[in-house]
Amino acid sequence: MNQYIPKGTAKVSARGLDVFYGDKQALHHIDLDIAAGEVTALIGPSGCGKSTFLRCINRMNDLVEGARVSGTLTLDGNDIHDRRLDVVQLRARVGMVFQKPNPFPKSIYENVAYGPRIHGLARDRAELDEIVMNSLEKAGLLAEVESRLSESGTSLSGGQQQRLCIARAIAVNPEVILMDEPCSALDPIATAKVEELIDELRDNYTIVIVTHSMQQAARVSQRTAFFHLGKLIEVGGTEEIFTNPCEPLTQGYITGRFG
Amino acid sequence: MPTILLTLVLLGLASAAYHLGRGKALSVSADGAPLHSLPRYHGYYVALWCGLPALALLVAWTVLEPQALRALMIAALPPELRGLSSQHLSLVVNEVRNVALHGAQPSSAAVAEAARHYTALSATGSWLLTALCAALAVAGLSWGRSRIHADARMRNAVERVVGVALVACSTVAILTTIGIVLSLIFESLLFFEHVPLHAFLFGTEWSPQMAIRADQVGSSGAFGAVPLFAGTLLISAIALAVAVPLGLLSAIYMSEYAQPRFRAVAKPLLEILAGIPTVVYGFFAVLTISPFLRAVGARLGLGIEAESALAAGLVMGIMIIPFVSSLSDDVINAVPQSLREGALGLGATRSETVIQVVIPAALPGIIGGVLLAASRAIGETMIVVMAAGMAANLTANPFAAVTTVTVQIVTLLVGDQEFDSPKTLAAFALGLVLFCVTLALNIVALHIVNKYREKYD
Ligand SMILES: Nc1ncnc2c1ncn2[C@@H]1O[C@H](COP(=O)(O)OP(=O)(O)OP(=O)(O)O)[C@@H](O)[C@H]1O
Ligand SMILES: [Mg+2]
């Protein structure tokens, strides 16, 4: 049973989305809406297609040899598989944070400045400085790195690196931020910081987060979608999904009976 | 017994020793005592005791036998032969050997007698060796076997032998290197007795021809190596100017843009370039590139000589493309996909990603590849001999004939002068310089790689 969001308020919406890797179908006919200004959590057992769905939204699957997509997926009502759509532009609007922190082997400053630079978001150095500082601030990292902006981004701890990657994504000023298990490589304290950050970012960005932690989904998200074997089983308010799921599969998964 | 046969017999004995040792260990454990080491380690232990000392003796004997035989044979020669100068003596020794080993016709009764003596000596020696080896092997076997008991730490003992064997192998490699360097240094020191160091390093005239006889007209030799260094630099620079852009760009294309199927074909094809014999490149330079350059030069009003640094450098550049491209391709592929996705996910285009993220991340490896290519270029000889000539001109003009360090080493050594003339010794001094430069290149490369290496896990 899927709850569609009233027309017009969905930021991203999938209708009949199928994804194939070669002959293997990874997603079956997904209908899913993602509301603006909310955190949507994607949960489900390993290999059920959560990352695949996430990577469709910024067309990262284009990079995968033999990946094919059919059905429609829209961002603000525009089909993102439209031939006329500029992928580079799309990815500037839809930022992504990966499972493993992947800072560039550049200085902390350059890591954050990279996006604004390639998109020409700053007219001069002062503006660029401002964007960088702002993004670091929003990512809750500024205090820790202010004095060492010229050090390599890879010299930070794992948790700091992940927040650096979030700052890097924010710096481009995207509308949607996709996060694929952003805390799976972090310890509980770093995880708590990132979760706090996600909560703050919710006001300005639409966030989709893949997570294996039920608690995390419950803590940070307003809506939760449950995937199983490439199918969307159920989507609804997080409260509801966790307290009163309609589908037995969902029930089984969140109570830890399988997955 | 011939050495090979003896070796095989020893190996056979060792494998028998293995089974004996293992069998004894098994019977010990069958008696109820828990073994410290697995039975097979007891087997290895006995086999090592059986085989190693005997094989070591065999090796030492094989190395030392010719010297010993020679000394014994000379001692038995009649006095008039023994008193000959060392050069003539070694002629006689050779003749005796030929008679004894290959049945050549002896030129005198004394030689025939010496040959008989030689044959007898080596037959005795052979028997002695066989007997000694057999004795050692059997002694080792029974000693090793006697050490077998339940608590014997055979596993650790075998481990130690493995460690020693590994150290021994690397020691051979290291000692060889040290030996080569030392011989370079000693011969160079001899050279610097004739020619002062500064005259060699900073002199600008190179004409190593020396008068062989006192009455001969000829220069007394000038050993200023600057023209050679300049020539080497010029040609290497041209080669790198060709190889670095072509190699790097093709590596980028193959690793980032090409279809996997294309890459599977193209990469080995490109690597074939490194496998073509350099003589063939030499032909190519002389027969194709040089005339072409000359024709183009004539059109443009440039005087390009038949032998030119440009022709040699261009062809050498093509030769070293694989060094740059193959290594760069490997390091570019080793850049984690997550970095690419990070950049692409921010909305970077493919080329932005490659230039700003992938290449910087791969840079240490790329520089390593370039330096490797550079040392290959500096050491290359054949192409330069054929395409750039031997004239030691001090010039930065790529259209003129130049010569390089390696080419001169060859010309110095193929002459018919004595081995202690400055002309010949100069080759060692040049070799030493070449060695130092290459070493410096490698050290710099390592330093760069270590300094800028990013750790990906
Ligand atoms: N590049 C690929 N090539 C082929 N098959 C793939 C590829 N990526 C994913 N798949 C397949 O698609 C299915 C969904 O994979 P996906 O990565 O989306 O799962 P997931 O839900 O993110 O799992 P996890 O929780 O383990 O990250 C899996 O069966 C997987 O084997
Ligand atoms: Mg995943």
From TrEMBL, chain A:
GO molecular function: ATP binding; ATP hydrolysis activity; phosphate transmembrane transporter activity
Signal sequence annotation: none
SMART domains for this protein: AAA
Domain ABC transporter positions: 12-254
Keywords associated with the record: ATP-binding, Nucleotide-binding, Phosphate transport, Transport
GO process terms (BP): phosphate ion transmembrane transport
A Gene Ontology cellular-component term: membrane
NCBIfam families linked: 3a0107s01c2
PANTHER family reported in the protein's UniProt record: ABC TRANSPORTER I FAMILY MEMBER 17 (PTHR43423)
Record-given protein name: Phosphate transporter ATP-binding protein
Organism whose genome encodes this protein: Paramagnetospirillum caucaseum
Automatic annotation (TrEMBL), chain B:
GO biological process: one example: phosphate ion transport
Domain of life, per lineage: Bacteria
InterPro entries per record: MetI-like (IPR000515), MetI-like_sf (IPR035906), Phosphate_PstC (IPR011864), PstC_N (IPR022182)
Pfam families found in the cross-reference section: BPD_transp_1, DUF3708
SUPFAM superfamilies, A to Z: MetI-like (SSF161098)
Residues annotated as transmembrane: 42-64, 126-144, 164-186, 228-252, 272-296, 354-374, 426-449
GO terms for cellular component: plasma membrane
Protein location: Cell inner membrane; Cell membrane
Keyword Transport attributed: yes
GO molecular function per UniProt: phosphate transmembrane transporter activity
Annotated membrane topology: Multi-pass membrane protein
ABC transmembrane type-1 domain mapped to chain residues: 229-445
UniProt keyword annotations, A-Z: Cell inner membrane, Cell membrane, Membrane, Phosphate transport, Transmembrane, Transmembrane helix, Transport
Keyword rRNA processing recorded: no
Function: Part of the binding-protein-dependent transport system for phosphate; probably responsible for the translocation of the substrate across the membrane.
Protein family: Belongs to the binding-protein-dependent transport system permease family. CysTW subfamily.
Protein name (database record): Phosphate transport system permease protein
Source organism of this protein record: Paramagnetospirillum caucaseum
